[in-house]
Design goal:
Length: 370
């Protein structure tokens, strides 16, 4: 048990240190790694939205996918599977991204922001835990998106090929790929360092199954704190890394934090939405990315939902900004709550009816046999 705790803390610690190191080498301050932000930047680079300050093909994403793919193949754990409510997963991924972009960061960046002194992340953290708690209530009542089934092996290779394709586009930089000249999209670590960091994280998280949503879900639902220790490892080692490597950017405050706003209510509600969606999906954006590298096409569909959400957010003014949260963002979050709650309620009722039908058929079969 002690060895297991040490292992998960070490994995989280390496992730936290790498995030601080990426900031040192040029990634956005108060970020280092943000899965939602990185998918948003990729969507912009591919021309899916026109926000010129957040357009770049982030090699870390390719590293996450390929690191997971390589170690899964090596360990015999790569398996193409999927078919578990793909459209619902797409919609949940879409609104997960909306919630994250209102907060201005994924659950991982929430921890990293806190490790750099951004106290607004506390509001986001409380919201994320509340969202997961809400999702747990649906799970207790029978929420499930269904079982995935084996699929042709070729379907499992789609996301690794996509990751390689992104690296090719990043290397040759054709005219149709867009790159920010200012703003967060222009803050970037050297490609080799970013890719290496992504590969390391991909390998570590594939082996440990570390997930921000899973950490809080297991602690609340079954009093299992294994993954939560990993999240603590991320925070502690990112904090140490920032103090040592990036002392000039470390500042404990609510105001004047990089790529953040201090609208407490919408920081809270944005992460509530992200928490509910992550718990119903069975994993945060980072976990979905790692699963996609293992051949999970349901996770790949979720990623497509994340990318679509990012494109939609920046095309229609749904993302927040350091200047605050606009009316479009607030309406989008409220619509997200309505849609996700409706999905949760409907799936619970459907699964309950399916269970009752199976019981009824079993009783009828027993009577006929008698």
């Amino acid at each position: 048990m002690k060895q297991g705790k040490a292992k998960i803390i070490a994995a989280g610690g390496i992730l936290g240190l790498l995030a601080a190191l990426l900031v040192k080498f040029g990634n956005p301050v108060n970020m280092g790694v943000c899965v939602a932000c990185f998918y948003r930047d990729i969507a912009g680079a591919l021309g899916l939205h026109g926000a010129g300050n957040v357009q770049y093909i982030r090699p870390e994403i390719s590293g996450f996918i390929l690191g997971s793919f390589i170690i899964a193949k090596t360990k015999g754990e790569f398996r193409a599977r999927g078919g578990s409510s793909p459209l619902l997963r797409f919609v949940l991924g879409f609104f997960l991204m909306i919630g994250a972009l209102v907060f201005l960061g994924c659950p991982l960046r929430m921890i990293l922001r806190l490790a750099n002194g951004d106290l607004n992340a506390i509001t986001g953290l409380v919201g994320y835990v509340v969202g997961i708690f809400i999702g747990i209530q649906f799970i207790k009542r029978g929420f499930s998106l269904g079982r995935s089934v084996n699929q042709p092996e070729s379907s499992g290779y789609i996301m690794p090929i996509f990751a390689i394709g992104l690296l090719v586009l990043l290397a040759i930089q054709p005219a149709f790929v867009l790159f920010s000249e200012s703003g967060p999209g222009a803050a970037r670590a050297p490609i080799a360092i970013a890719l290496a960091a992504g590969l390391i994280v991909g390998v570590l998280l594939q082996r440990t199954r570390l997930c921000t949503a899973g950490g809080f879900r297991d602690a609340i639902l079954i009093k299992d704190f294994y993954f939560l220790w990993g999240l603590i490892g991320i925070f502690v080692f990112a904090l140490i890394g920032n103090l040592v490597l990036n002392p000039e950017s470390f500042k404990i405050s609510f105001v004047e934090q990089p790529i953040a706003h201090n609208d407490f209510l919408w920081n809270f509600l944005g992460m509530v939405l992200a928490g509910v969606a992550s718990s119903l999906l069975g994993g945060c954006p980072l976990r979905q990315t790692i699963l996609a590298g293992e051949g999970d096409t349901d996770a790949a569909i979720t990623i497509l939902g994340l990318i679509a959400g990012a494109a939609f957010a920046h095309n229609f003014g749904l993302a927040a900004s350091p200047q605050g949260v606009g009316i479009n963002s607030k309406v989008a979050v409220l619509i997200g709550f309505i849609v996700i709650m409706a999905i949760g309620y409907n799936v619970v009722k459907y699964n309950e009816k399916a269970r009752n039908d199976r019981k009824g058929r079993a009783v009828e079969g027993g009577v006929s046999h008698v």
